[in-house]
Write a structure and sequence with these properties.
CATH class of the largest domain: Alpha Beta
CATH architecture of the largest domain: 3-Layer(aba) Sandwich
Oligomer: single chain
Strand order of the largest sheet: 6-7-8-3-9-10
Shape: globular
Number of helices: 10
């Protein structure tokens, strides 16, 4: 798999009215078909970064400076009407809490239909076909009984998978997943989590975010076997077991645990 061409590259800083330096010149690159992991403790700026990439942070009172290049176009220079045609169609986000992301009054079927209609301009695929495909891709049923349910009638895991299904209805080129752990068909993903082991099992590369800055990026093998930053070394040392170990006789890296998702070879 080649990561030479970037689907998204960003260099940005974020300030809030009552707090400056939330993100400080954070740079990252996501290649086509890559799954990039972003690891950081609560308060490190992970969700802020995801909202910044989608140009949603102003709704939370944040100010973003720098650039966010998606397919060569700077999203920070786009108008809101231009962004509406990108969000949902080309870029989607799955937030951490499905409870707050879904309407408690509407049925699951109605919410999926509304999500489809919101971005269906020029899409020839019937909405019912897209909804069925999205639900099946996250191992949820496509039947009347399930579609009639409300969000309060779903388990936390089911709610999260419904949110993922909504996000991938239009098969976006990039998905930003904030603590979303359900398995997905291999697409370009920024996978955000505090769980370093799950990120190592899923991602091609890992970025370590701390105190509003990315300290280092590398393959899971390099992060676990030769971390460069002291903070990363402490994270790895605190784990009960490492997902990669090096054979002392051959110096080859071997999986200590089988990955949760096989990477695409395309």
């Amino acid at each position: 798999m080649s990561f030479q061409e970037s689907l998204l590259s960003a260099n940005l800083s974020v300030n809030y009215r009552n707090k400056t330096g939330v993100l400080k010149n954070v740079s990252l690159r996501i290649a086509h078909h890559e799954i990039l992991g972003l690891v950081g403790q609560s308060g490190s700026g992970k969700s802020t970064l995801a909202l910044s990439l989608m140009r949603l942070l102003p709704w939370k009172g944040g100010a973003v400076s720098g650039e966010v290049l998606f397919r060569g176009n700077d999203l920070l220079k786009k108008s809101e009407s231009e962004l509406r045609s990108i969000r949902g169609n080309e870029m989607s986000i799955v937030m951490q809490s499905p409870v707050t992301a879904m309407n408690p009054v509407l049925s699951i079927g109605a919410q999926l239909s509304e999500a489809w209609k919101a971005h269906a301009r020029g899409n020839a695929v019937p909405g019912s076909v897209a909804i069925q495909s999205a639900l099946e891709s996250v191992s949820l049923p496509f039947d009347d009984e399930f579609l009639r349910r409300r969000s309060s009638q779903l388990s936390l895991g089911q709610g999260q998978r419904v949110c993922i299904a909504m996000a991938i209805l239009h098969r976006p080129a990039l998905l930003l997943a904030d603590e979303a752990t359900s398995a997905l068909d291999p697409i370009t993903i920024l996978y955000i989590s505090h769980d370093l082991l799950s990120v190592a099992a899923l991602c091609h590369r890992i970025c370590i975010l701390h105190d509003g800055q990315i300290l280092e990026c590398g393959t899971p093998e390099s992060i676990f076997n030769s971390p460069r930053h002291e903070y990363t070394r402490r994270l790895v040392a605190a784990l009960p077991s490492a997902p990669f170990r090096r054979d002392p006789k051959t110096s080859e890296v071997q999986d200590a645990e089988r990955p949760l998702l096989q990477h695409s070879s395309s």
